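re: that chain from earlier
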Amino acid sequence: PYLEHLLDITTEPEEKSHYVFSMGQLMEQAGDFERAVDFYKQALTMEPADDRTWYLIHNNLGYSLNKLGRYAEGERYCRQAIQIDYHRYNAYKNLGISLDGQGNYVEAAKNFIESTRANAGDPRTLQHLEDLLKRQPGLLKENPALLTDLKRCQQASRFAKEMLQRFIDDFENSHG
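^ sequence. v structure.
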C-alpha cells in the first residue's frame, strides 16, 4: 500500500521507476526472487529516461531470473543491459551465469573474462570463471586461448587487490 501511495503522488517517471526498482532490490535481499522479478518487470513498463536506472533494471532482472534457473530469459535482459551500457561489468558476469546455466560454456567463459577485464577488483567474476573451468576442464583443451585469458584475469585481479590494499594502508597511515 505504501508503494502504491508513493506511485500515486509521484509525477516523475524516473522517481516512480526508482521506487519500484528499489522494491525489487529489497526482494532480492530477502531472497524472494519471484517478487523481485515482478517488481523489475513493473519498473520496465515505466521506461525511465536515465540510462543508469535502465541498465540496473535490466541487469537485476537478469540476475533474479538466473537465481530462479530461468537462464534463457535472464540472458535476454543481461544482453539488453550490456546494450544500454557496455562499459559496466556486472551484466557481463550475469550473462556468463545465464550462458553457463544453458550449457554454452565457451560464451560463458568469454563473458566472465570480459567482466573481469572491466572490473578486476570484483573477485566474483574471476571465481565464476575458475569454477566453470574446473567443472568443464575440456574447455581449456578445446580453446587454448582461454588459458591465456584466465592467467591475465588472475594477474589483473591480484593487481587490483594489491592496489586496494595499498590504498587502505596509505589511508590508515595518513589518518593515523
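The CA atoms of residues 111 and 127 lie 13 Å apart.
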